[in-house]
Write a structure and sequence with these properties.
238 residues; 3-stranded antiparallel beta sheet; 6 helices; elongated
Length: 238
């Protein structure tokens, strides 16, 4: 019997969900635009990424506003005093429960993205891309002006033009804040892409103005295209 039952048990376990837990239900406190607390359990909303609490964004008219704070307040207003039910999906590296949370039948994760208070967190899920497309098309929330994606802001973009990106959010370029090269100086920018490709950009080229150079990361300026090629950089493709 053991030779039959043990393989069967292994098969059953292999077919079980990778993560399963009972829903977490109760009154919710809003920690920030994508984090709740229910009865002492910290819950990170699955598949979305809201601006950080201290993050600034630009409105269409150009004035700044605390978009992270706006997202948190909008979520708190949406929930009100109603109970929230969260369906756990995972545990993140900070020990928070990652979950889809609902007020009644409404998916709060989707609501935040569709209203332009958060973006679809493509790094972890594609569940809310359609909701993001809705917000983008309607120029709702952060899509009405310009912003840096929360992930880039956390990685240091906050130091660049107070954390603002070009209109269009994550699909738009992040502008350079480097001063223009001095007359007679070396003006060709040697940039290293996220894939590790070494590409140089000459003044007037498509990506020149939005390319910024970080010498600490190995990037540099060149005085001529020949100098750049000799150092291992290539011209942009296309």
């Amino acid at each position: 019997m053991k030779s039959i039952l043990v393989p069967a048990l292994v098969l059953v376990l292999s077919l079980a969900p990778a993560f399963a837990a009972e829903p977490i239900t109760g009154g919710a406190s809003v920690v920030d635009g994508d984090t709740l607390d229910i009865g002492g359990t910290r819950i990170r909303l699955h598949g979305i990424d809201a601006p950080e609490s201290a993050q600034l964004c630009n409105r269409k008219a150009g004035e700044t506003f605390r978009c992270g704070q706006t997202a948190a307040l909008a979520l708190a207003d949406r929930i009100g005093s109603a109970p929230v039910s969260c369906d756990p999906r995972d545990i993140d590296k900070y020990g928070r429960t990652v979950a889809v949370c609902r007020k009644g039948a409404e998916d709060l994760n989707a609501w935040l993205v569709a209203q332009g208070h958060a973006v679809a967190y493509r790094r972890y899920s594609e569940d809310y891309i359609t909701a993001e497309d809705t917000a983008k098309a309607g120029k709702l929330g952060i899509w009405a002006g310009s912003f840096t994606t929360p992930g880039d802001w956390r990685k240091g973009e906050r130091a660049m033009t107070m954390g603002f990106a070009a209109p269009g959010g994550p699909d738009g370029p992040i502008p350079s804040v480097q001063p223009p090269p001095k007359a007679g100086g070396c003006a060709i920018k040697g940039n290293i892409s996220r894939k590790g490709e070494r590409v140089f950009h000459v003044p007037g080229s498509r990506d020149y103005d939005r390319t910024r150079i970080s010498e600490k990361d190995g990037e540099r300026m060149f005085c001529s295209e020949d100098e750049a090629r000799a150092a291992g950089w290539r011209a942009p493709r296309g």
